[in-house]
Amino acid sequence: MKLYNYKVVVEECEEGGFYAECPAFPGCHVEGETYEETMKEMKEAVRAFIDDNLARNQELPSDNFLVTSVQISV
């Protein structure tokens, strides 16, 4: 079994719950009522994207994303 590491972005939703996405896999995103539920769903979604790529003999995307923040004055 091989271990893969991919970054995910998690945001708290204004209406409650959480939204998460994995930038390495466009379209790979989930929502959940709790952080724990969201992360569980996100792991399952990323695993499905990995499995799909491997089944199609496609190269897995790299995870070369820079995660940073910007400060804006208004």
Walk me through what this model shows:
- The protein has 1 helix and 3 strands.
- With 74 residues, it is α+β, with helices and mostly antiparallel strands.
- It has a single domain (1-74), classed as Double Stranded RNA Binding Domain (2-Layer Sandwich).
- The mean pLDDT is 93.
CATH class: Alpha Beta
Q: Roughly how many Å apart are the termini?
A: 50 Å
The ordered string of helix (H) and strand (E) elements is EEEH
Q: In which range does the helix fraction lie? A: 25-40%
Beta-strand residue fraction: 15-25%
CATH topology name, in short, is Double Stranded RNA Binding Domain
Task: Enumerate the spans where pLDDT stays under 50 for 5 or more consecutive residues.
Answer: none
The main sheet orders its strands as 1-2-3
Largest sheet, strands/sense/barrel:
3 strands, antiparallel
Q: Please, how many helices?
A: 1
CATH architecture field: 2-Layer Sandwich
Report Rg.
14 Å
Query: How many β-strand runs?
Result: 3
> Quick one: overall form?
globular
Total domains, how many? 1
Average the pLDDT over all residues and give the rounded result. Answer: 93
Query: What class do helices, strands and sheet pairing give?
Result: alpha+beta
Annotation keywords:
74 residues; alpha+beta; Double Stranded RNA Binding Domain; 1 helix; 3 strands; globular
Task: Provide a short characterization of the protein structure.
By secondary structure, this protein is an alpha+beta fold. The chain contains one helix and three strands, in the order E-E-E-H. The longest helix has 21 residues.
